[in-house]
Task: structure prediction
Amino acid sequence: AQYGTAEDARAMLEKAVAAVKADKTKALDIFSEGGFKDRDLYVFCANASDSVQTAHPTGLGARLKDFKDVKGFAFGEEIMRTATEGAVNEVTYLWPRPGSDTPVRKVMFFTKVGDQICGVGYYK
Result:
């Protein structure tokens, strides 16, 4: 398939959580370097305390809480507010695929892992 599926995104998040638990610093570096990238899927992580992204292929250092979609939905704040250790939550918002300017529905699976909030999203 050209694009990642919901199942692919959840599986990638599970692997990412295991990697963070095993060695957070190494995992964050691998995520930022695209080591977990698969088609249009990738891992992001942010500090649970201040929302600064600690792992992202292109947005390292950005504040997750500042992210809004084209309709103004503050999905970053929603992720920060609802991320829970040991539970995978999801949020749907409009976001362009990599290499495009046209927003489409994206579903982000996310969870809290220690002091990090990590997620993987797929496009519908």
User: Anything to note?
Assistant: The chain has a mean pLDDT of 96. The two ends are 13 Å apart (CA to CA). The longest strand covers residues 103-113. The helical segments are 6-22, 24-32, 75-82.
